[in-house]
Amino acid sequence: MIVQLSDPHVGTEPPRDADALAAAVRAVLALPQAPDAVVVTGDLTDHGAAAEYAEARDALAALPMPVHVLPGNHDDRAVLRAAFGLDGGAADPIAYAAVCGDLRLVVCDTTRPGAADGRLDVPWLAEQLAADPATPTIVAMHHPPADTGIPAIDRIGLLAADRRALAGLLERAPQVRRVIAGHVHRSALATIGTTPVVMLGGTRTQLRLDFGADVFEMLEQPPLLAVHRLVDGELVTHLQPV
User: Which listed residue, 38, 39, 165, 213, has the most CB atoms within 10 A of its CB?
Assistant: First the structure.
């Protein structure tokens, strides 16, 4: 079982975002069954500052299970890597695979330094999926491979060519049961080909649902966490209020 959190956007001031992340951590700890791992699908901080990562790391340190992080467009790879002790060079993509109980998690880095939109290294992902074609797998990334219908967020999404390449790859990788992402600041469901996509809202503010919006309007709406669990061989996702 894997719990997903997303887009804490911890900032140095005001401290409310760190408090919201701490509340989400408490919600994970309150689950009757502890997850095998927690994944945070990007934008851990608002400005990529070391002090912000220290606050995020301290909040997540209360979790006794492995915590897997990946960068979003607000993150700084080098500072994130140093804060969480991740392997690799400072400028290298933060991308890796991990076994989480009876699931496999493949973490992708869709960030482009200095840009808000995303790219996906589909050949790298293909290698990771080919390495274990049997274990039920979740692919995690920040930028979702689907549009939401909200112009403000869709124009800084994943490159269309990468979406098409990913769709073709997933047709050849039936072990991938879910693609999970953040970035949208709303909890929404979609598909890429026949693979379900879960976009999870942030741990504090959420994007207003407006299909004509060209600008971001964030609201103080209740956050959710996602619980991804195998049930009789099928992956079920529960959206749990914080």
Answer: 39
Distance CA 106, CA 173 (A): 13
pTM of the predicted protein model? 0.96
Q: What is the mean pLDDT of residues 11-39?
A: 92
- The per-residue pLDDT for range 46-63, each reduced to its tens digit, is 999 999 999 999 999 999
CATH assignment of 2-241, among 3.40.630.30, 3.60.21.10, 3.30.365.10, 3.30.470.20: 3.60.21.10
